[in-house]
Every structure is written in structure tokens, then in C-alpha cells.
Amino acid sequence: MxxxxxxxxxxxxxxxxxxxxxxxxxxKATPLKFSSLMFFERRTQSSIRHRRLKYLLLFAxxxxxxxxxxxxxxNPFVTRKAGALAGGAKMVAIAIxxxxxxxxxxxxxxxxxxxxxxxxxWRGGDRGQVLAFGSSVELMTQATGDVAEMRAAIEAIxxxxxxxxxxxxxxxxxxxxxxxxxxxxxxxxxxxxxxxxPPSFADLQLAANTKLVSHALASxxxxxxxxxxxxxxxxxxxxxxxxxxxxxxxxxxxxxRRSVSLAVNGRVLETKSVDVPAGGRATxxxxxxxAPYGWCRGEVRIDSADQLxxxxxxxxxxxxxxxxxLLFVHxxxxxxxxxxxxxxxDTSTEAAFTLEAVTPEQAANLALAxxxxxxxxxxxxxxxxxxxxxRNWVRGGGGLLIAxxxxxxxxxxxxxxxxxxxxxxxxxxxxxxxxAIASLDETHPVLRRAGKLExxxxxxxxxIEPGKARVLARLADGTPLVLEKEIGEGRVIAFSSTFDxxxxxxxLHASFVPFVEQATNYLAGQEERSSSYPVDSFxxxxxxxxxxxxVEVLDPAGKRALTLAEAAGAKNIRLSxxxxxxxxRANGRHELAAxxxxxxxxxxxxxxxxxxxxxxxxxxGAAAGSxxxxxxxxxxxxxxxxxxxxxxxxxxILGVRYLSAEGEQ
Length: 665
Description:
Elements: E1 2-3, H1 16-23, H2 56-74, E2 76-81, H3 82-85, E3 91-97, H4 107-118, E4 127-133, E5 137-139, H5 147-155, H6 166-180, E6 184-190, E7 210-216, E8 224-231, E9 235-236, E10 244-251, E11 256-264, E12 267-276, E13 281-286, E14 294-302, E15 313-320, E16 324-330, H7 336-347, E17 353-358, E18 373-377, H8 384-395, E19 399-403, E20 421-426, E21 437-440, E22 460-464, E23 470-475, E24 480-487, E25 490-495, H9 512-523, E26 532-534, E27 537-540, E28 552-554, H10 564-569, E29 572-575, E30 579-584, E31 590-596, H11 609-620, H12 627-630, E32 631-635, H13 637-664
Helix pairs in contact: 2-13, 7-9
């Protein structure tokens, strides 16, 4: 026995209070009238009788009350075995792996049969809980002793497409042990996939008195081929300029030749053969993608005939569309900028735009609504009506690219961007002959593939004061080279030089083509996004300004994936199934999202026995140690407080009786 708060035992010093009350009571004598004291003899009266304790039973009760209060606050406890606290009962956790790899050889059905058979020997008094786990843990039941309920929960577990995580399972088992307070016996039904282990072994830690029993559905690594990845554009405009690259991987496989097919909307377009080395990878490239207009469901397949056929294909989504119109406004006497810009568009891998070139005078009466992007290439002035219309067009969602050269440097402010021009700078022979890039935001979509603009020389540039614009690139002398500003729903990108080879030699470098391609796609809202997503990733559905507008999403089974409330307010959706999600966004745009299982699930290698033994010992190590580690403190606080209550009641009754007797005397 011990005390959890022994310092409260100092409260026993309050025993002196009842002693004082009973011992130091003064003797009160009743005075009697007498005529004369002359015949009485003087003597000292003894006070021993008056100092004796009175009402010994009441004194004992008051002393016991003080002692019990001190003991209660000191929180006494006794140690008992953890199993004894539950009367020998335990919590049985039945964890069934329903990840993507459990599709091989019907392992999930076998796991459910074995888990159901485990319940045949159920012991009365135990409680159980059924769990299904992949990348997260789903509690199929609460703690219960109803065997029929647990059998029904096991049968209700469906096949998932996520990647299994033993770290998430260990976290759930720790939570069960902490909340129940009982010893936990966890039965794990899984293919024991090695790729499901976390990077840190500490994440597998089990709570003390947790026994992990493994029911392995695979004892050794099985060979498996899979389409590991596909590189395909999200949007195509010219099928002849489109490339699709696929990687085929073998996991524990011998060297073999595989047949790889490219299909769109279920129709096979092309088939090639590839030699996959033993346990290695091989790449196949298809040089065209003949897809119909609109969104198409693409797929790359292999003929593997292995035990996990679901990873023998990989989905991708692609949209076929006509090139969009791009308006290029330039001075008639400066054709070089148009030549280089047009050539860069034609050279790009995606022929996304059809260029229409005009002078400022010709642009006055154009309808801007039909253009996706407008480029102002070093124009000295714009017709007033066109500039106002251009500003409103950008505010409504348009994209504007401005090249500011010597002609635009004569203005006080850049049109539409509305930022001040401080001066035009030249690099002459008397000083530095040119300026180079000093800093550049490589994460921005416009500059991501520009290769840091290495080796580009800038001889002439216009210094634009950033103001409210964001600077994406600067020259060595601090001049902002690339600026971005959002105006309403649209964007403006300003380049403080020209697109010819006079003010700089940028058009002569390989980085010019990706810069033009990325800038125009970004301003047109066609920035690069993946054509496929992994299972359990999230797809953005709307921006903050689009709240309240309904979004419709159909899952791969063709069912609505969102409730009415989610359709009106959800910002994203979790892609939990393998296949195609059909999304109709708040702005009216239709989109397909291709979803594929994590290819780490394709590696069917199993957890080594020694690693599994170490994991099991993290829960049994404490129980197998010293007897002190098997003991658990059991508090006696409630019993002490019950005794305090009973003694207080007895003291009150006895005290009232004694006071009444004294009053009568």
C-alpha cells in the first residue's frame, strides 16, 4: 500500500483540535448564597478532575474524522495485477486489412472468413471491436460482447483502393488500450506487406499489455508486374504533337517481354512490346494520341497474367480542344517581336493558341471576349477606348502579357498594370555591357521551366516600380524583370524588356520557348496540372469566392459523391476509389479526374519475421518484464471518502445527543 499524495498526511496535525475542544473545557460552578464564611477553612481545590476528557466516544469520532480526511487527500492505493482489474477479461481487436493489395488471390475474402472463424471460440466476459484499415482506420463497431454484431461488421468490410498503413493501425490500438483500460489482444489479418511499414519504427509502438497476433495471408513475396506511371498531357490541341510515356515495373519478377497498349475511351490506339528486366523497369513511348473532342478516358495496359490484375492498367484523363485565340498587339515598324513570339508558340509542345497580330490602330474595334490572352509588345500608345475595354476585360477574368521596351518606356505608367515607369536603362560600353538574372521565383508556373534564364543578356530594360505588383524575377542591378498583378478576376504579367533580339538575346536561348508557352497557358487559365491523382488525394472543387454555387461530382461507380450540403459548400473532395471522377464545377466547367491506386501496393514483398517479432514485443515487453511493471495502482480514495461520510454522520448524531443532555442538566 502507498499514498499518491503523501504530503497531505501532514493534515493529521489537526487532531489537536478535538483534543483542545474536549480537554480545555472550563468547569463552571453554580454559586450558592451563604451568610458568613468565617467558620470555613481555606484550602486549594484540585483541578485534575476538570481536565479529564469528557464524552470519549464523541472525541474518538472527531479524531477519526480528521485522520480519515487526511488519508483521503493523501490518496492511498494498493497495487493489483492489470488483469485482475477486469476480472481476467480482455479487449479483443479484430483488424482486417482492406487495402489495394488485398485484391490479390482473393485475400480480403479469406481474411473475413478467418476473422469470422475466430469468433467461434468467443469467451464470455470479453469485449471486442472490429476495425478495417488502409491508409486510415475505420471502426466498424464499438466495444461489444455481441458476437452476431461483430460477424455482421466483418461481412460489411468492403474492398478498398488505398495504401495500407501499419502506423495508423498501431495508433488506433494505442487509443483502444488507453480508453478501455483492459488488456488488448489484437488479431491482425493482412498480407503483411513490407511497403506498409512506416519510415520510423517508433510509429509501430503498442501500448503495454497489448498482445499482437498476426494472421498472415502471404508468407513470401509473389512476383507482380504493374504499369507504374504514365506521363500524358492534360489537354491536347494537335494529336500529332502529343506524346504519352509509360513505365512498366516488375516487382520480384523474372526478365520478360510485356505487351503495352494505349487505349482511349476503351478503344486501343496502339500496342508495343517492351523487355522488362528482372525486378526492373522499362519505358514505352507513344508518339500520338488520337482522341476525340472533349474529355476522354485514357488508359495504358499490359498483359501480365499475375495475381494482382488491377494494377495492370493505369488511368489518365485528357481533353481534346481547338486552339484558342491570342491577340498580339505590336507596332508595325517593329516586326521582330512578333516573329520570335509566333515562332515560340509554334515550336511549343502544345499548339494551344492561334495568333492574331494587329497594330494598336487596328485593335480599336476588336471584340476582346473571343480572345483567351492579349499580348502588348512594346506599344507606345493605345486607343483610349481599347485601353478601357482591355482593363475591363482583364477585370472580368482575362490574361494580359506586356513586354515593356523603349517605346513603352516613354509613358509615365504601364497601361492596365497601372504601375509607374521610373526610367529606361541601357548598358553601355563604359560600364557593364549587360545585366543578368540575379533572383528568380522558380516555383511560379511562368518561370518553372525557364531554366533560371541562365546566360541571357539584357542590354536595355524599363524600370517599373512594383507598387502592388509581385516581382517574380530581378536583374543584377535590382530592376524588376518579371512582375505579376491580379486585377479583379484576371492577371497581368509584365516583362520589362522586349521579345526581339535587340534589347536582349532572350529569344535566342532555349528558355524562351518554355517561357512563352507557360506564360500564355498561365494567363489563359490552362496551367499545368497532373492528368491523374493517387487514391486518398484531394481535388479542389471551388475557390473561396465561389461559395454557395453547387458542384456535382460522380464517383467511378456513377453515384453522387457529395451530399446536398457538401455540393453547395465543400472546397475539396477526397478521391478514395480507383477510376474516373466526373466533376462539374461551380463555374460550369466539366472535368474528368483520373484516380489510381498507390503503386507501392504493387510490391507484394512481406514483412521480415524478425521485424514482425520486434513489433509484437513493443506491446508484450512491459508484461514480460518485472512483476512491478505488471502491477497497476488501484486507488482507495472513494473508500476513504465513504468512511469520512459515515463518521461525520455518526459524529453529528452523537454530538446533538450530548448537547441536548447538557441542556437538560
